[in-house]
Amino acid sequence: MTQQRLPRSIATVCLSGTLPDKLEAAAAAGFDGVEIFENDLLTFDGTPADVRRMCEDLGLAITIFQPFRDFEGMPEPQRRRNLDRAERKFDTMQALGTDLILVCSTVHPAALPETERAADDLRAMAERAAARSLRICYEALAWGRHVNRWRQAWDIVQHADHAALGLCLDSFHTLSRGDDLAGLDKAVPAEKLFFLQLADAPHLSMDLLSWSRHHRLFPGQGELPVPGFLKDLLAAGYAGPLSLEIFNDEFRAAPSRRIARDGLRSLVWIEDQVDLAPLPALPKLLGIEFVEFAVDHAAREELRGFIGTLGFRRGGTHRSKDVELWRHGGVNLVLNSEPDSAASERFEQAGPCVCAIALRVDDPARAVARAQALSYPVWRERIETGERDIPAIRAPDGTLVYLVEGLLTGGDPIWEDDFQLEGEAAADGLLCVDHVAQAMTLDMMDSFILFYRALLGLMPDATWELPDPYGLVRSCAFVSADGSVRLPLNVSESRRTGTGRFVSAHAGAGVHHIAFRAADAAAAVDAAAARAAPLLDIPENYYEDLGARFDLEDAEIAELAKRHLLYDRDAAGGSFLHAYTHSFRDRFFLEIVERLKDYTGFGAANAPVRMAAQRRQSSRA
């Protein structure tokens, strides 16, 4: 049953900028409250009362003041000084207008291990807090010296037995240790669950402190079972704010408003996961209907020739706009030169580039409603009478994702509605758009992950680290359940890699690689070569190595080498044939692929050979 929505909160440590910047970003995103992180207050050129007034003006509650470190279990004279320090923090809390402070389990090497001693200290602190109508919540840090699990923290809180003392439960501190909340509903009374902090993270092999301080993510961006954690907490009766506490180097360097919006979206997503506030259902994806390029007339003429060598033919012109349709088998490419359009805006920013992708979905209206609930901007292009109204969602980099009603029986009429068609598309050759890869800056990766997962329900494939001649490229594909939509994301810290150079030239994220699936890759490559397609040369050494890696006959290897086809095979016996073109104006390149026996990968093992070949080709151009 749907429960009442809980307040949404975010810690100021999640965001970049000054404290006023952070508060304004949180309010603009739609948060109900903020956690004031002590360091943000210490560096603020104003009083706690000023912060309180700013939050009141912005409509933000201050949900908690945090953190208070290394308190319990300290020997004298540190114990007495800690209680004095607590009194000063109580002064700050009252000036801020919050009644709750977070106390983290101590990491101090001098701390004493006895549970009763820790309970006595927290009881003394809670007694002083209660005298001021304040409360204390105690949290087990994953790397705490003596207390690093929530059950240990609860044992201490139970022993302290004070109404002003309760628990804070943090998903990262629990899940990073392989722990869970099993038994929470039976062990801890709901009134003792004072606060909740949510954070996701990738699975990494490193010390807990470094993992926590640099690699936390919003729920839905990582790999921890955060929805299950929250579900258990709600089942135990928790009724306080849903609050985000994320330490992430990229977040703290990125624009605060973008990160705050992603933070709120992550809470909307996780509320749906636990039935707190259900979203419109995920769309059923049925494939990629078209890829659209932003071009001027000169670039359009050049791109016509480029894709023509792969067998694309003009299939129609738009009824009211300067837009062309080019087709080959089941693949549709749109060349958009319309002035005063989203495409022309994109062209002015980045030159010839992919400006839109269209996905076939079962119900575009429902997908739009889901996007609006997640605060993703919806775009509608100007249309004339009789033309199809196709809604689009803006991706984090500004690329449009059109939502086309997919007909399982085939024959989608959008082309007949909007275009004057020129003959039939060739029935043979290319089957579909196999995958569309995007290159982006590091700080954009997590925004795209949330976009693909929360809005479209795409799930991450394996992450690969691919060696370019001038650095590493990290790649992770997001794939629909049936494999009809595959969208790899690529990032590189080096600006000299092919990915890094694309991002620099493109001034940000964008599509840099489109793969077309063929029924017969060898035949498709032969036909392209006969049209003088600019196919990428692969060195002979690669084919020498194929014989050592796979049990291929010499004649098979010779046929691959003749066509510059690359080969891969997975553990289940599926295989992959693929060949690449040169880059178009150093912006994007195309690929012909063939999947055999349910191969699901992308030929990642061949990526280093491809990237080195592209660098050689680029240096000769």
Secondary-structure map with pairings?
Elements: E1 8-11, H1 19-29, E2 33-37, H2 38-42, H3 48-58, E3 61-68, H4 78-96, E4 100-104, H5 115-130, E5 135-139, H6 150-160, E6 165-170, H7 171-175, H8 184-187, E7 193-198, H9 208-215, H10 226-235, E8 242-244, H11 256-273, E9 285-294, H12 297-308, E10 313-318, E11 323-328, E12 331-336, H13 342-350, E13 353-361, H14 364-373, E14 378-379, E15 392-394, E16 400-405, H15 414-418, E17 419-421, E18 430-440, H16 442-456, E19 459-468, E20 471-479, E21 486-491, H17 498-506, E22 510-518, H18 521-530, H19 540-549, H20 554-563, E23 566-569, E24 575-580, E25 589-596, H21 607-620
Overall 3D form: elongated
Q: How much β-strand is present in the residues?
A: 25-35%
Q: What percent of the residues sit in helical stretches (DSSP H or I)?
A: 25-40%
CATH architecture of the largest domain: Roll
How many strands, which pairing sense, and closed or not: the largest β-sheet?
9 strands, mixed
Integer tally of domains: 2
Structure description:
The protein is an alpha/beta fold and 621 residues long. It folds into 2 domains: 8-273, Divalent-metal-dependent TIM barrel enzymes (TIM Barrel, Alpha-Beta Barrel); 285-620, 2,3-Dihydroxybiphenyl 1,2-Dioxygenase, domain 1. It contains 21 helices and 25 strands. It has a 9-stranded mixed β-sheet. An 8-stranded parallel beta barrel has the order 1-2-3-4-5-6-7-8, surrounded by 6 helices. The longest helix has 19 residues, at 78-96. The chain starts with 7 loop residues before the first strand and ends with a helix.
